[in-house]
Design a protein that fits this description.
Layout (H helix, E strand, L loop, with lengths): L7 H38 L18 H9 L13 H4 L1 E5 L8 E5 L2 H8 L13 H8 L1 H17 L13
Protein name: HK97 gp10 family phage protein
């Protein structure tokens, strides 16, 4: 949508009344959407072997003793990180308040998820890293950047953000 202004004052008024009040909400919305995307992609990856050029890939197969333990406890034999689903479901996203600089944290407070991501290097209890979260972030970096850009462009154009709540558009 191309917007035309007849005067410089009209353009300045547009910036003050439509862009300035909404730009921080647009940045926040773009970051929130990006964090939600990375969280969702991480959850989808749990239980699968990952392959690709990213650091830590391809992921190592489960050890025979791990497969035996999974079977003995009634779980499927070969779904890395996915037993009851509790670890997968523990992933969340937190996003700072709206502003021109918005930060997001995506991850889990479950220590099993941390060990799963980073691995364990103990000699008698070795577990290779399975970088689910970092791979999801790396693979979606461009989508997140484009999404933030789309939200900012909407704000500059003076358009309402998609599915914005009433208090977000005032």
């Amino acid at each position: 949508m191309t917007r035309k202004f007849n005067t410089l004052d009209g353009f300045i008024r547009h910036l003050r009344e439509r862009v300035e009040p909404n730009i921080s909400h647009a940045v926040h919305r773009g970051v929130q959407d990006g964090a939600d995307l990375i969280k969702a992609e991480t959850k989808v990856q749990i239980g699968q072997y990952l392959d690709g050029p990213e650091s830590g890939l391809p992921t190592a197969p489960l050890a025979d003793r791990t497969i035996d333990d999974r079977i003995r406890k009634g779980f499927s034999p070969d779904d890395p990180g996915l037993r009851s689903g509790d670890m997968r479901d523990s992933y969340g996203a937190r996003v700072s308040d709206a502003g021109l600089r918005v930060e997001a944290s995506i991850g889990s407070d479950d220590i099993k998820a941390v060990v799963f991501e980073l691995g364990r290097m103990e000699q008698n209890n070795y577990q290779p890293p399975r970088p689910e979260l970092s791979v999801a972030a790396f693979r979606n970096e461009q989508k997140v950047a484009r999404g933030i850009g789309r939200m900012v462009v909407r704000a500059i154009e003076g358009r309402i953000l998609p599915n914005a709540r009433a208090e977000d558009t005032e």
